[in-house]
Each structure stands twice: as structure tokens, then as C-alpha cells.
Amino acid sequence: MSDAIATTSSEIYLDANATTPILPAAQAAMIRVLSDNFGNPGSPHGAGIRARIELDRARTAVAAVLQLPANSLIFTSGATEGIQTAVLSVLHPQRGAASLRVLYGATEHKAVPEALAHWGEILGLTLELLPIPVDQHGRHDLPWLAENAKDATLVCTMAANNETGAISDLAGIARVLDALPVRPLWLVDGVQALGKLAVDWLGLRIDYAPFSGHKLHAPKGIGLLYVRAGAPFTRLLAGGGQEGNARCGTENLPGIAALGAVCEAILAGQWQADALALAHQRLKTALLHAFPSLVMNSPSQHCLPTTINFSLLGIPSKCVLDLFDSLGLRLSAGSACNSKNAKPSFVLMAMGLGEARASSAIRLSISPNVCAADIDAAIERIALAGQILQTHLDDMLQLEQVALPDENLELSSRYAVTAEQLPAWQAVYPKGVLVDIREHWEQIATGAYPVGMMIEHHSLSQLPRWLGCLALDRPLLLACRSGRRSGQLLSLMRAKGYTQIWHLADGLAGLPMPSAVEQ
């Protein structure tokens, strides 16, 4: 645990399924490559040879973690590229076919069905895309699969789900596919499995498996694709012959070296499964204690110890996320790729858990490189969140009912003040007032921000009471937590004649965060 990553005292990051901070050893590997072994791995001179050694070292470490042949792994920019390559490899040889049946898990990451539809259209193929149903635990319906996979060209499933942590019955799926007269090709999304779940990729005869480095303490922009020997393959990128001519383009050596360093840490036993399981259980217990009405959406069995998905029925997930964020706890409502989508979680809907649970779902996710100090701090803040919610729930729900116009992006951009621009704005308007429109509970959770100017607190939920009381010609700077509501309110107040008004573009969250309030 010596290389565990502790976040700052004011921010506890609990959204590891979205991305992770870079492991110190991975950062060191990147710096080593950037400063010393910066050569092109394709160059025949000494600098190129040293770079090639870095490349081979990383591939060897990754192969050892996955227990796969090194020559079956292709370094990519991430899982999305790997998925595109796998889908293209399956569909490209089928050009001219009248129709193809492709099955994919109903809870699959959207990158998979989107890639299938995209490449089907590009290649002029008629695809029958069928989602594989799942049960309330997020596991695939194997009898349905056995019935519908008979004439399928490709089956796509996940090793583990990114929203709920549900672990797929890959062995059961393999038995179904093996029993078919003609076995379809099989793509398994391995993103959430890397470093967390042992999978017998060879024994299960999985044909393609994409992975992403930034989900496991490597930087963004590096990933890999496993391709089983003998599986159809069509390269996505042609060029100078890199990666055995399978993925051309100069290798992202700093990213590759970083991913290799992460895998070396795994092989060295740095991350202990017992510590991860204990952290998971402590967080789960803390949540249940803080929120007695909480309902768990993650399965109790066959679930990654990194993931807890839960709902507070009747409370929109945004309310709860705002509360957590005010306390410096970084969680999410599901996939980061769908964070701007206000619809209920399609994953929970596919599991049959209902719209009430899907609309109030929250995902807490930690990495295998768990930091005990962060877990201790998170548990304290979860308890405080429970107290605040119990006292201020009516205020939170009232805030959701406040009618604000859609943000005029041109207007809010023109009158936006960033954290970097704030001192200059204050110099021009020394008598300016920051109007903090956060709710009382948000102020309790976060405390005061040191902005060095006069501050007035006017809760947005009480907007009708104070909107007409502010002087029209006084320089005002609207501020909320994230900058979204202040941008909407700016549009409204400009329309009502407030000519000396701006808003803090990225909200108070964009300023240096104060220490969490000790309660």
C-alpha cells in the first residue's frame, strides 16, 4: 500500500469507474520516457532501441497481468478505439451479406451498440441488433441467449458493468456459445475487469477484449485490445507498420510506459484484495447508516468490490450529488459518458428495477489502489450528508421546483467571469458584490469561500422573495456551486433590467476549495 494515492484533505474522489488519478509509479514512468527514453521505438539507433525496450517492458507486464500472449495485445488510445477495431474486424468480412444478427448486453456501455450501428451503416450492412435481457442482478438471460445466438455473427457482453459492478457469468455464456452448431465471435468489454477481476480470456475463447488505462491509474489516451489468434482482424489505422502493422501511428510511449508501470505494481502485489473488500464494506455500512431508506442497486453477490450503486427513493440523483459535491465527495449518477443525459439510468431500467430507482441512482466507485485515509474521511462526510439531508430535504426538493429559463449560452459566455479573471473583475468593480445563490445546506456543507469581496447570500429556492430587492445598477456577480444555475439566473436577471451583472463561470467549485467544515 506504500504507493496508494491519497486525495487532498478537501476532496475525496469516489468516482473511479469514470477515471482515476495517475499512480505515482506510472507518473515516474512517463517522466522517464519523456526525459530520458524519448526516442521513437521504430528508430534503429540507440535512442530508438531504449524506447523499444520501454515498449516491450510494458507489453510484457500487461500480458502477465491478463495472462495472455504478448503478441495478442495491441496498444490503442483507449477502449472506444478497441471496440471500433473489434466491431470493424467482425463486420468487414461480411460485406455483401443479406443480413447479420448481432447480440449485445442490454446493460452494455453505449460505445458498443453505437459502434455496431455506425459500422453497419458505413459498410452498408443490414444488422439485426438484439439486446440480451438481464435479470435484476444484471446477469444475462442465458436461456434467451441460447435461443437467439444460433444464427448470430457476433455476441457482445461485459466482464463487469461500469454502473452497478455486476459481474457477468462469462463461463455460463461460454458454455452457451460452445454448444451452438456454429460459434459466433465474442467481444467482451474488459474495461472494469482490468486489475479487479480474474478472467480466463484464453480458456473461455473470447475473441476480442478492449481495455482502458485511465480506469486503473494510467493516463487518459492509452488502452489496449486483445485479439484471439485466428479471429478475423481488420486494422482501423493504416500507416507505418507499428504494433505489428495492426495499429499504425507512432506509439504513445509515455502512456504505454505508464500502463506498464501500473501492471508491474499489480504483479508486485501492491494492491491487496482484503483492503479493497474492507473499504467496500465500510462504505456500504456508512451509507446504510446515514440514509436508512437507501436501496441498494448493485447485486449483493457477483459484484465488483469497487462499486456501490444505490438509490434514495423520491429524491432525484442530482439533489444527492449536489449535497455530496458540496461536502467534497465526488460521486456520479452513472457513466461519465452520459452525465449530461437527464434520463433515468438505462442500466437499472434494463435490470427491471423501475424508474423510481433509476431516476435516483448514485454510483460510488473506488479503485483497487484504495487509500485508507480517504475511506475514513469519506465515512465522516457521508454521516454528515445524512444529517443535512434529514434536516434540509424539503429545501432541496423545493429548489428543484424553481422555474428558470434555459441558459442563453451566448449571454452567459459574454458575462462570464472565470476564477482566473476574478481579481481583474474585482479591480474594475471594487464595490462589486458576490451573490451566493446556494442553499443554506450547501453553505453548511462547504463553508465560506475566501473571495476577498462583499458577499450576500440569497438562496435560489427563495428567488421570488429577493429578486426585486437588489439594486439594478450595482455590480453583481452571481455564484452557485457549478456555474449552471448562475448562468440560467443571469439570463433571467438581464431580461429584467439588471445591466451590471455577471456570473462566476465555473461556480464556486472552480475556486480553490476550502477545508470541509468540521461538524
From TrEMBL:
It comes from the Bacteria. InterPro entries: Aminotrans_V_dom (IPR000192), Aminotrans_V_PyrdxlP_BS (IPR020578), PyrdxlP-dep_Trfase (IPR015424), PyrdxlP-dep_Trfase_major (IPR015421), PyrdxlP-dep_Trfase_small (IPR015422), Rhodanese-like_dom (IPR001763), Rhodanese-like_dom_sf (IPR036873). Belongs to the class-V pyridoxal-phosphate-dependent aminotransferase family. NifS/IscS subfamily. CDD domains: RHOD (cd00158). GO terms for molecular function: transaminase activity. Residues 428-517 form the Rhodanese domain. Keywords: Aminotransferase, Iron, Iron-sulfur, Metal-binding, Pyridoxal phosphate, Transferase. Its cofactor is pyridoxal 5'-phosphate. This is cysteine desulfurase. Its EC number is 2.8.1.7. It catalyses: (sulfur carrier)-H + L-cysteine = (sulfur carrier)-SH + L-alanine. Pfam families: Aminotran_5. It comes from Deefgea salmonis.
